[in-house]
Specification:
The protein is an alpha+beta fold. 49% of the residues lie in helices and 8% in strands. The protein has one domain: Cytochrome p450. It contains 18 helices and 10 strands. A 5-stranded mixed β-sheet has the order 1-2-8-5-3, with helices on both faces. A 3-stranded antiparallel β-sheet has the order 4-10-9. It has a two-stranded antiparallel ribbon with strand order 6-7. Helix 10 packs across helix 11 (155-168).
Length: 398
């Protein structure tokens, strides 16, 4: 019975500080572990990798065909299948630059460094800080607002909207989700209206930001509809913000728990890009993703029926000892680090390039200030979300 309630136990807030023993239990029970609610839970690396690249596994929520709600009719493109997913993702990536290049995001390095420097400077005379509220939250929301061209006086609006939307996207037991889903839909509508209205103000008057690029696309065949514009810009905020908050905060927590590795990175900052990849494996910002098989599918000798909810425990796969040597050890110089920190396959996290740059810049700026720092509370209080896992506060005495 224990294995049949693993998803409920992983989702239980009591296990938020350390779900990794449950992931080990999942791998031992499995590759496919049926849950009491009828879903299947998978936590082994090679099976997850295969399913993330299997076109028979749908990313579309079941509610899209089971419900007539507005949210069900218009999911963001990361919750669509090809060919519609490919079309919208391609159109959305155009303002970032030429195909397969960092383009605009890479050009933001200087701005990201400047914003990071301002945030660190504001902490200089503080004896105690909350890494989340004072640094990890304002950095990515400021960066993504600058990319989109949001006026600075309105940047604070997006933190509240984003928190509600992310809470509504959690994976867990189905009870008591009505109010959460309602609040998430309302936040999406409010954010979408704001962004569409702002974009419309720039139609015919380009201002060099991404919203302006979207509405001033010269080729009518490549323009997003109003609905698509709302959903894709909301997605950019979520993908470009929430993953980065968790990545930075989990990174600081991991390094403060390992002063030897912290000192190693201070002495060898060229290891920072590798350290960020290891953090994406060891303490990832995204822990789970749901997929729905479009037909009966065999996984390691187990048949999963069409339409079954399949939860892929990405964080478990990234600690699978059959794929990674000493997976429970944090090693910032780890070779061959093909983790699931941002997923894999066609639905690889849309905000991954931006999150990597922000995390590398943020940790590099914080390292000199963390040498004599100590955690005030360990484990810290975590946010409710089990899918996008990270501390809600991380209080550090400097």
């Amino acid at each position: 019975m224990a294995s049949e309630t693993l998803l409920a136990r992983i989702s239980d807030y009591a296990n938020r500080p350390d779900p990794y023993p449950l992931y080990a239990e999942l791998r031992e029970a499995g590759p496919v572990v049926r849950q009491a609610d009828g879903s299947c839970l998978i936590g082994t690396y090679h099976e997850i990798a295969a399913l993330l690249h299997d076109p028979r596994m749908s990313a579309e929520p079941r509610s899209r065909t089971d419900s007539s709600s507005e949210e069900a009719r218009r999911p963001p493109f990361l919750r669509l299948d090809d060919p519609e997913h490919h079309r919208l993702r391609t159109l959305t990536m155009r303002p970032f630059g030429p195909p397969h290049t960092p383009g605009r995001v890479d050009a933001m390095r200087g701005e990201i460094t400047r914003i990071t420097g301002e945030l660190v400077e504001a902490l200089r005379d503080r004896e105690q800080i909350d890494v989340v509220d004072d640094f990890a939250y304002p950095l990515p929301i400021t960066v993504i607002c600058r990319l989109m061209g949001v006026p600075r006086e309105d940047e604070a609006l997006f933190q509240g909207w984003t928190e509600v939307i992310v809470a509504s996207a959690d994976i867990g037991p189905e009870e008591d989700t009505t109010e959460r889903d309602k609040a998430g839909l309302q936040a999406r509508q409010e954010m979408g209206r704001y962004l569409v209205d702002l974009a419309e103000q720039r139609r015919g008057h380009p201002t060099g930001d991404m919203l302006s690029d979207f509405v001033n696309e010269p080729d009518p065949a490549l323009r997003l509809t109003v609905e698509e514009l709302a959903e894709t810009t909301i997605l950019l905020f979520i993908a470009g913000h929430e993953t980065t908050v968790n990545l930075i905060t989990n990174g600081v927590l991991t390094l403060l728990r390992r002063p030897d590795e912290l000192d190693r990175l201070r002495r060898a900052p060229d290891l920072l890009p590798h350290a960020v990849e290891e953090l994406l494996r060891y303490e990832p910002p995204v822990h789970m993703r749901e997929r729905i098989p479009l037909s009966d599918i065999d996984v390691a000798g187990t048949t999963i029926p069409q339409g079954t909810s399949v939860v892929l425990a990405l964080a478990s796969g990234s600690r699978d000892p059959k794929r990674f040597h000493e997976p429970d050890r944090f090693d910032p110089a780890r070779p061959d680090n093909e983790h699931f920190g941002f997923g894999s396959g066609i639905h690889l996290c849309y905000g991954a390039p931006l999150a990597r740059i922000e995390a590398e810049t943020a940790l590099g700026a914080l390292l000199p200030h963390l040498a004599a720092a100590r955690l005030v509370q360990d484990p810290p209080p975590y946010r409710q979300n089990a899918m996008l896992r990270g501390p809600r506060h991380l209080t550090v005495h400097l």
